[in-house]
Amino acid sequence: RSSDLNTKGMMLNRSLFDINQVIRNTAASFEGTCKQKTIAIELTLTGDQLFVNGDVDKIQQVLYNLLDNAIKYSDSGDTVRVDYAAVGKTVQVVIGDTGSGIRAEDLPQVKKKFYKANNTRPGSGIGLAVADEIIEGHGGTLDLYSREGCGTSVIITLPTEQKEQA
Fold first, then answer.
1. 134 close to 59: Cβ distance less than 8 angstroms
2. In the chain, which residue ranges form alpha helices assigned H by DSSP?
């Protein structure tokens, strides 16, 4: 493990970790909530390990926030999908839902601290801002695509760490 301050002054405790395992563990923590709300979570993960050099706790926090949002803005019978793919020297994690979606005029604002596009659902409006900051701190990007009434997809792109061949 190595610690470093990123450009925004955020302390990152970097280590190599398998993003596949972190996604599985984070999704598993929502099983009860999803059963209660009759929302399906579909994970499309390969059996392969895919290593990222980053702060595992902060990346887990991002995944937790994004899954929490996807479930919060979904209704009974909706589906939340999580999948990822290695793209060159990056990994893309996509969290998509079939929930209420975000209005086009709100989309540019939703990554700002305390901005809430939908006040009928619980939350502080800080989750996406923090998630965006953490991903940027790792040299990655967080992009949102949404259509009102159709759902939202969040795409996280993170640099991967190629494992040394022994």
1. yes
2. 19-28, 31-37, 56-72, 127-137
Angle 49-57-100 from CA coordinates, rounded to 5°: 85
- What pTM did the predictor assign? 0.85
Query: How many alpha carbons lie under 13 Å from residue 142 in its C-beta half-sphere?
Result: 25
Sheet holding 151-159, edge to edge: 40-44, 79-87, 90-97, 151-159, 141-147
Cβ atoms within 10 A of the Cβ of 43, count?
A: 14
- And the tokens for 9? 């002054």
pLDDT tens across 90-146, in order?
999 999 999 888 888 877 777 666 555 555 544 555 578 888 899 999 999 999 998
Contact 60, 26 (CB under 8 A): yes
> Token pair of 19, please?
């993003």
Per-residue tokens: 145? 């695509």
Classify 153 as helix, strand or coil: strand
